[in-house]
Write a structure and sequence with these properties.
The protein is α+β, with helices and mostly antiparallel strands and 116 residues long. The protein has 3 helices and 4 strands. The chain has a 4-stranded antiparallel beta sheet. A hairpin with a 5-residue loop joins strand 3 (25-34) and strand 4. The longest helix is centred in the middle third of the chain and has 16 residues, at 57-72. The radius of gyration is 14 Å and the shape is globular.
């Protein structure tokens, strides 16, 4: 989407989509960085504000998350149902996550549910 800007707020664990003009957050992916057994980006929730649904924002966020991971040389271990489905539809952009890594991400989330 050309009318949104996507920014990674790593400290807050949010990949945010801003509407034209850059002032209003119109959607985001909430994620965490898993450190063990290997470093990975783990998306947990994807949210698009109702007034902005149907414009490809969620897909743009998922694509950028995988782009960030590729640039950093780390995998994505998706727990977010939307990102899981997006990855299935875009295997050329979203390599499948190792099952052991997914299990580790689920264990981390179960032990650290605050904020998610």
């Amino acid at each position: 989407m050309s009318d949104i800007e996507i920014r990674d707020d790593r400290q807050a664990g949010r990949l945010e989509a801003f509407g034209s003009g850059g002032g209003e957050v119109v959607g985001h992916i909430q994620y965490f960085v898993l450190e063990s057994p290997e470093r990975a980006l783990v998306p947990v929730h994807t949210i698009v504000e109702p007034a902005h649904e149907g414009r490809g924002i969620a897909g743009s966020l998922a694509r950028e998350l995988y782009g960030i991971a590729a640039r950093e040389g780390v995998p994505v271990a998706p727990l977010c149902p939307y990102v899981v489905k997006w990855a299935e539809r875009h295997p050329e952009e979203a390599p499948a996550a190792d099952p052991d890594l997914l299990r580790a991400a689920k264990r981390w989330l179960a032990a650290n549910p605050e904020g998610f």
